[in-house]
Amino acid sequence: MTRTMWDSSVGKKTVMAVSGLIMLLYLAVHMFGNLKIFFGAGDFNHYAHWLRTIGEPFMHYEWTLWVIRVVLVLAVVAHATSAYQLSRRDIKARPSKYVHARPRASYATRTMRWGGIILGLFIVWHILDLTTGTVHSGGFQPGHPYQNVVDTFSTWYGNVIYIVAMLALGLHIQHGFWSAAQTLGVGSRTRDRVLKIIANALAVILTAGFIAVPVGVMTGLVA
Amino acid sequence: MKLTLRVWRQKNADAEGAMSTYEVDGISSDMSFLEMLDTLNEELILKGEDPVAFDHDCREGICGACSLVINGDAHGPERTTTCQLHMRAFKDGDTIDIEPWRAAAFPVVKDLVVDRSAFDRIIQAGGYVTAPTGAAPEAHSTPVPKADADFAFEHAECIGCGACVAACPNGAAMLFTSAKINHLNVLPQGAPERESRVLDMVAQMDEEGFGGCTLTGECATACPKGIPLMSITGMNKEWLRATRKAGKR
To answer: Which CATH number goes with the domain that contains B87?
Structure first.
């Protein structure tokens, strides 16, 4: 069954849909967690520390976090690999363009591939910036995420990279969520309106929720 | 009406093609698009030039033979087949671009004619029922719920013209394949091959070098028969169901 899945274009889309939904679920939790920053350094740092102690004493320190990280890495790899292979196939299937060209489909639909690449690069930067601190501006302090976040969003490029990536995320989710429903065969004419509303709502809420943090730092609400 | 036509001319499958410009005069707005091309071809023949090759057959919008991309739209600006498109959709002095279907799986044979036998092979992979053939059976011998009959009819409307492939930015044949699968899979007559049909037809579709669906919706917009985009959702559902069942065996 695994072979049939991966060998078929429909199966690969299923892999994309499922891995995308896993990441979407994580993002919803991540965005909600981020908002603790508006309650001050104490609350935010306490929340960040709790992430490492989830499931104790059954799970050892950071075990749950590592389980989540492994699942996410698998989801990203599966999503990107199937996207790459399906895109290669799509481009090969349409070798010559029409002379009379016109813009096709919605902006969100047309930017799925570029948007995906932007998001992939963003994830790398985001981890190097706020998890490992490798490319962090100023002195990265492990265990003091509040200060680290303020440092990142005190630089112009930190804000630009983050906000551009979050806008790309919104567009990606808007088309991606609805598409995942079609790929998994749960879309229907009666459900279509609801699915589109959920897709738009998820896109707007997640983008706004994430961008609230740099905006908070810029306006001095978070300092 | 006086029109400027820019037409894709290509001697054969291996030749390089290019757009050629022609002027046609005295076009009536009541002519069909194909009659307008007939007028051009008559002039070309009288001048001793090679007429423009294009596919056509019934000219009634039911056979699926005509296949032109007009000003970037498969079958032109109206939601119908090229043969049912009339010149009243254009204005005097217009420049019209005419191109063949573009897809790796639909190679150009000559000018505006493409080879669509990839569709035939997808049908051969499972787009049929293995019921005994012969005289038409008594209509009520196999009862079909009204909703299922309507669903099957809606998908059976597909005439296999390939406009979905031509319109799709990925050259995908998902709408065609899904229309054929949904049409048969919902009916009791199609039930014995319900799983093998969807698995085999999707596999053949991939094998022919068609792209995949990115849900741009271009196919359903171009379809002269109004096959809905949700048809693809239905095919995905059938495919996942069949794959699950095959895994259990």
So the answer is: 3.10.20.30
- CB contact under 8 Å between B69 and A11, yes or no, is no
Could you read off the pLDDT of A163-208 as tens digits, one per residue?
999 999 999 999 999 999 999 999 999 999 999 999 999 999 999 9
pTM, 2 dp: 0.93
User: In this structure, are residues B192 and B130 in contact, taking their beta carbons and an 8 Å threshold?
Assistant: yes
Q: Which residues of chain A, if any, have pLDDT below 50?
A: none
Residues B139 and B236 in one domain: yes
Inspect the interface and report whether the beta carbons of A182 and B72 lie closer than 8 Å. no
Residue in chain B nearest A113 by alpha carbon: B214
Q: Which of A16, A84, A94 to mutate to test the interface with B (most CBs of B within 10 A)?
A: A94
Half-sphere exposure in the Cβ direction for A201 (13 Å, CA): 6
B226 torsion bin: left (phi>0), alpha (psi -120 to 50), beta (else): left
For residue B173, which of B190, B183, B160, B184 has the smallest C-alpha distance? Answer: B160
**Bridge partners for B8 per DSSP:** B19
Model pLDDT for residues B175-232, shown as the tens digit of each residue:
999 999 999 999 999 999 999 999 999 999 999 999 999 999 999 999 999 999 999 9
Whether residues B125 and B231 share a domain: the answer is yes
Tell me if B104 and A179 make a contact (CB, 8 A cut-off): no
Instruction: Quote the domain boundaries for residue B72.
Output: 3-109
Q: Do B71 and A100 touch (CB under 8 A)?
A: yes
CATH number at residue B199: 1.10.1060.10
Which of B199, B211, B237 is facing A89, going by the closest CB pair? B211
